[in-house]
Amino acid sequence: MRGFEQQEGTDYGDTYAAVVRNETTRLLLSLCAVNNWEIDQLDAVSAFLNSEMDRIIYMRFPPGMQTDPNQVCLVNLALYGAKQSAKLWADDAHKALISIGFEQSKYDSSLYFRREDRIYVTTHVDDFKVIGPTRTVVDKVKQQLMGKFDMKDQGPINFYLGIKVDRDRTKRTLKMTQTAAIDQIIEEMGLTDCTPAKTPMENGLQLQGAANDSELVRPNNYIRMVGKLLHLSTNTRPDIAHPVSKLAQWNAKPNQACWVALKRVGRYLKGTRTMGITYGARENPDTTDDDTSFVKVYSDADWVGDTSTSRSTSGYAFLATGGPIAWGSNKQTSVALSTCEAEYVAAHSAAREATWIRFLLHEIDPPEATATSLPSKDTTQRIPPIPLAMDNQGAIALAKLQAPNRRTRHIDMKYHYLRECIQNGIVKPYFIPTTAMVADGFTKALNTVKFNTFLSLLGLYR
Q1: Does domain 282-461 have CATH number 3.90.180.10?
Q2: For 171-220, what is each residue's pLDDT tens digit?
Q3: Does pTM top 0.70 for this prediction?
Q4: Which pLDDT tens digit goes with each residue over 17-38?
Q5: pLDDT single digits (tens) 171-180
Q6: What are phi and psi of 423, to 5 degrees?
Q7: Any idea where the domains of the chain sit in the sequence?
Q8: What CATH number has the domain spanning 3-161?
Q9: How does the average pLDDT of the chain come out, rounded?
Q10: pLDDT band of 168, cuts 50, 70, 90
């Protein structure tokens, strides 16, 4: 199928692939760990061929078939290679799940749930995860899906999308690692026999990139390796999120210094290849008797972290059952005039993510996330505000302040969304000391002692 020859509007319309968000998957896995729920996998066999083509499309016969040269094939099924095949399959999978009583999430279109037996199904193109409280209900849903499509029952989750999942049902823990992907990266970098680094980036390092074409060093290889590291940093290795974000800023003009920093990350991975996210091994940091929230968010900023542009760096981390489910590290889009302003802007990013996570929690209604089991449309009553930890008292006061003042009236209006989130009970800011700030490692490169503390607070274990 020569899909690259298809013309938009004539041969295909919308294109779409059903891919569940990483944050949704990790949230559900954290619930599975603490509740000892069942997680099984199904793989649809030749998934796209279950769907019929939505338009009249002709194709040449495959090479080797003895046919009349004046004849062509009429495509009846959604063949692999056609631009709309993934969407057609997603539509049919959606119809099948709706027909057996599932609802589609409003906040992640690849998540489906059935309230009466508290069971969840996620889709990643042709890979399905079935999650439920008991073996009976999980097996029932699997049989229903296998009655709709030809599927392979892969049993309890063990390995999916390159991620190894290890469970200890007795201790109610679940660990996610990507050792095989790390080994491949180390081999491609030529670091098989290297000396491991203790941290992924040198403390205080400032990259500048190539000043001209003569300083460029293998840009295509650099982009490919940064892409592989991004895959790790967005799935199971949040500890390298900040250095990879810094490296990605120079994709267009990497120089020798960028390559040295890139290989430093590889050397760090060499020594921590078995490290991964663990859920259920502990409570969230700074949990108290009167504050046992299922999800907590930690927000931090490094004022003027990028000296070349005077921009600050934002970082946040959401933790559930002691492990990270969502995180971010990015350079702010405008210059902050003070540490307080930088922290305020960073908290705005965390509040945006908190809004989505809280809506998702309310929709899927896990028992740990609700303040009461009574049904209610008022999310502020059903689910308590997500605690937002910050290490700057001025930023907390600014977030609660309604009247503008001389020092803050220049702040862009979009960042005041944080105040609305506080008023609506979505987040509840509170102060913690910098030594307890989980998101510190998402804003800057740390020395060895502080970085080890960051790993401990974040809940990453070897």
Answers
A1: no
A2: 999 999 999 999 999 999 999 999 999 999 999 889 988 888 889 899 99
A3: yes
A4: 999 999 999 999 999 999 999 9
A5: 999 999 999 9
A6: -65, -40
A7: 3-161, 188-271, 282-461
A8: 3.30.70
A9: 91
A10: very high
Q: Structure tokens of 303?
A: 């004022």
